[in-house]
Structures are given as structure tokens and as C-alpha cells.
# Entry
Amino acid sequence: MMFTKNDKVSLRMAEPNDAENIYRWENDMQVWRDSETRVPFSMRQIEQFLLDNNDLVSERQLRLIVEDAKNRATVGCIDIYDYDEFNLRAGIGVMIDEKYRGQGYAKNAIKLLSDYCFNTLLLNQIYVLVLATNVESMLLFESLGFERCGVRKQWYKTADGYIDQVEYQYINKK
# Structure
């Protein structure tokens, strides 16, 4: 069932039948660096998360599926994490399947999720953490009005050395 949509994308709750896509995305070593993943997930772990733990209040995180609004193709997912209902803030993250990147899906999904965060959850701010090597993501969030607010030096260790992590935040101006 659709959660929210615009002309380009719709967001909906992740369901057990999304497990195969999520399993593939979570275990894609090409995106591990950006998601700070170090070990693979089993299908059972993914299925268990979808059955029991995709709850914003109790687990402080929520995963939504991003679909093409016209043909309903699953193009990625978007998350709210580190939800803090006392300080009214949360982190967000987006992952678009490689074959759908560069087509505006992430930008539209972030706009919808931001609207939900500010107008339904009544958050004061959302933030995102981006590795300094992920220039596309930094430009995306900057284009949406996220402000760079800090750099964590030598934050992520790789075989070639350390990478800085850039923090962006968007404060609700309403």
C-alpha cells in the first residue's frame, strides 16, 4: 500500500516480499562503504527485520520502499534512523538501485520523506552522513537545501587509508 507519492515516486512500507531486493542491496559490497556495512546480512535477518523491527517508535528506524510512480517498479529504499522523539531529529539515508540512478528518484524520495518528517512527525531537523568521496550524494543533498555542518576527519578506514565523513542537516524553517 502506498504511503505517500508525487509525480515521480511513491513511498511505501517495506513488506516481506521486498526481502529479495533488500537482501541484494544490503549485500552489494559496492555500497558497503557508504552504508558503513562490514559484514553481509542473511536472508533470514532481512526477513526478520521486515516482519518484526521496521517500527519507527520502538526501533528508532523505518525503511520505506521507493517505487516509480507510473509503473510501480521498485527502484530503491529510503530510511529514517536514529529517530529521537525528544530532540525531534532523525538521520535519513537513501539507496537507489544502480540501474535507476541519475534519474531523479533519490531527489524526489528525499523530498517526500522530508515532508513526512517535518509535517507528520513534526521533527525540527533531519541529518545525513556522507563520505567525502561520494560527491554525487553531497551535491544531491546540497541541492535540496541541506547545509554542511561538520566533517569527521579520518572517519572511515579503507585499505587505501582513511576517508572523511561530511555531515549535513536540514532544519525545519516552519
About this structure: Helices lie at 19-26, 29-35, 43-53, 56-59, 105-119, 135-143.
